[in-house]
């Protein structure tokens, strides 16, 4: 049977993989996917605590967090398309001089 600690360990693993991806990768798409891993690890923790405590508050935060993640993806991909059209690169190191 799965306990709360199993879900928290899974969440910790996903969170650490996401943080490592954000800190070590240079491609914007990989950085955005790593941010999604971080969001999903938080969702797993919230859902696990909500189930364990028999409260719907955590599930409400999960739905809210999924909505925020979808908006983040839409905005992030729109920025990526604009930057790629202008600079012809998705390397984060080459995008430090963005000017309006």
Structure characterization notes:
- Helix 1 runs antiparallel to helix 2 (28-53) and helix 2 runs antiparallel to helix 3.
- Helices cover 78% and strands 0% of the residues.
- It is mostly helical and 100 residues long.
- It has three helices and no strands.
- The N and C termini lie far apart (54 Å).
- It is elongated, with a radius of gyration of 17 Å.
- It has a domain at 26-91: Helix Hairpins (Orthogonal Bundle), CATH 1.10.287.
Q: Which class do the helix and strand fractions yield?
A: mainly alpha
For the secondary structure, the number of strands is 0
Q: The CATH topology of the domain at 26-91 is what?
A: Helix Hairpins
- Residue share in helix: over 70%
Radius of gyration: 17 Å
- CATH class categorisation of the domain at 26-91: Mainly Alpha
Low-confidence stretches: none
Tally of contiguous helical segments: 3
Fold blueprint:
Layout: H1 4-24, H2 28-53, H3 57-87
Give the gist of this structure.
The protein is an all-alpha fold and 100 residues long.
State the main characteristics.
Helix Hairpins; 0% strand; mainly alpha; 100 residues
């Amino acid at each position: 049977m799965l306990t709360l600690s199993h879900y928290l360990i899974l969440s910790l693993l996903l969170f650490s993989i996401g943080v490592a991806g954000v800190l070590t990768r240079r491609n914007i798409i990989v950085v955005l996917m790593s941010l999604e891993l971080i969001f999903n690890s938080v969702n797993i923790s919230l859902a696990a605590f909500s189930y364990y405590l028999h409260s719907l508050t955590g599930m409400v935060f999960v739905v809210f967090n999924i909505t925020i993640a979808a908006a983040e993806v839409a905005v992030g991909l729109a920025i990526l398309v604009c930057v790629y059209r202008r600079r012809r690169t998705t390397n984060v190191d080459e995008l430090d001089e963005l000017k309006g």
